[in-house]
Each structure stands twice: as C-alpha cells, then as structure tokens.
Amino acid sequence: MAESAVRRKHVPENMTVGFIGSGRMAQAMAKGFISTGIIKANHITASDPDPRMLKHIASLGVTTTENNKEVVNKSKMVVLAVKPNIVPPVLREVSEVVSKDKIVVSIAAASVLAPGSKSLPEDKDLVSELLRCIGICETGSEGLLDAVTGLSGSGPAYAFAAIESLADGGVLMGLPRDLATKLAAQTLLGAAKMVLESGKHPGQLKDEVCSPGGTTIAAMHKLEKGGFRGSLIDAVQAATNRAKELGAKK
C-alpha cells in the first residue's frame, strides 16, 4: 500500500494515456503501466497504421484506433512512440486537437526526460513518476538528447551485434548455436547488472576478472589490438551526429 501511495503522488486516479504508435516500446510501456496499477487498461488508447501492432497492444486490454486525433482527444498524456522522421507529420496532423492541458511526450529515440521550455513543473513530475514506475526514466537537459540517442537509443543494436559476435566465437570453438547465443546474452545481461547493482566503475569490474596471465587478459589484449573500445566510442559519436542532422531537418 505504501508503494502504491508513492506512485500516486503526482498521477491522478483517472489519468488517461494515449500512444500514437503501438510498436514494442508502446506495448512495453502500456504493459508496465497496467501491471503496476498506475494506469488502468481502459484508460489507455493506442493508434497505429499496422493492424498487427494494434492486435498486440489490444491484447493488454487497451482501446485501439487508427485515428491519431482520437488518441489525443481521449488522453491527458500523449506518447509519440514513432520513429524520429515520423514525429513532424504526426504533430502537424494532430496539432488542431492538442490543447494546453495536454502533455505530449516523445520517446522517438531516447529514454531521458528532457522537459520542454513551456512544460510546467507538475507536468515533469507526472511524466517522471509514470516513466519511473516502469524503470526507464532519467532526467537531463534537452541539449543532451542527441548524445542520449547515440548511446542509449542506438545502443541496443551495438549490444545485439556484440551478442551475435560472441555467439559466433562460441560456434567457431565448437558450441551449438542455441547454447552459444544464450550464453552470450546471459553474459551481457549479468555484466550489465553488476555495473548497475555494484556501483563500481566498469574498469574496476573488468580488472577484477582479469587474472594475471589468464584467459581474460589475453582476450582483452586481442580486443585492444582490434580497436574494440575505440570502435564503440566512434559508433556513439556517429549516431549522435546523425541524430543532430535529423533534428536539424525537422
């Protein structure tokens, strides 16, 4: 009961949320809102041009439609869960029904909350509470969003590539593909949890598993020679610069 009361500090009982775009992110958010009890399923409306996406999100008990304006009309908070290049035309489409009492949140390419210049403090508190209940919200300035996109928005692709490459290495050394993939994914999952839960610097954790003259330091030597860390840094830089270019075109 105490946890529920905390969650309801800024979110009213009759809070309504709409998703324009019903892909995986919208589905995950809707499922989180419903499972935590912070938003009722019948208080959520979602739209998407793809019937398959609507079918998936409808299975959660939410109302679905193909009309974006209907989503706005029914919702206090409207979440733009579409790709960055789709945001401008969607905003133009629904602009005539977006009133001052609506809160519009874009999750096109980031999971850091950056309040707009015209947003109210209570708007930030409400959105932050909603997003924190499903564990995907940090707060930062709007100027950081391109870098957040380069790291966090595009980051899953880097992780997928790492898992695939580790699995390929396992297969090369004789492991069955399914086992190699599971081991690779669990390895990254476990390492990520250690960083988040231990509070230690990643470099310290790396040093702790590199025994003198052992297998891990030999592998790290090979990765350093191949420019592993530099390549990841370059990837984040390239994605950030691309995000800036896309933003400039809006």
TrEMBL record:
Keyword check for NAD: no
Annotated transmembrane regions: none
E.C. numbers: 1.5.1.2
Biological or metabolic pathway of the protein: Amino-acid biosynthesis; L-proline biosynthesis; L-proline from L-glutamate 5-semialdehyde: step 1/1
Keyword annotations of the record: Amino-acid biosynthesis, Proline biosynthesis
Every Pyrroline-5-carboxylate reductase dimerisation domain range: 142-246
Organism domain of life: Eukaryota
Pfam families: F420_oxidored, P5CR_dimer
Entry-linked InterPro entries: 6-PGluconate_DH-like_C_sf (IPR008927), NAD(P)-bd_dom_sf (IPR036291), P5C_Rdtase_cat_N (IPR028939), P5CR_dimer (IPR029036), Pyrroline-COOH_reductase (IPR000304)
Domain called Pyrroline-5-carboxylate reductase catalytic N-terminal: residue spans: 16-109
Similarity-based family: Belongs to the pyrroline-5-carboxylate reductase family.
Protein's name according to its UniProt entry: pyrroline-5-carboxylate reductase
Organism of origin: Tegillarca granosa (Malaysian cockle)
Biological classification of the source: Eukaryota, Metazoa, Spiralia, Lophotrochozoa, Mollusca
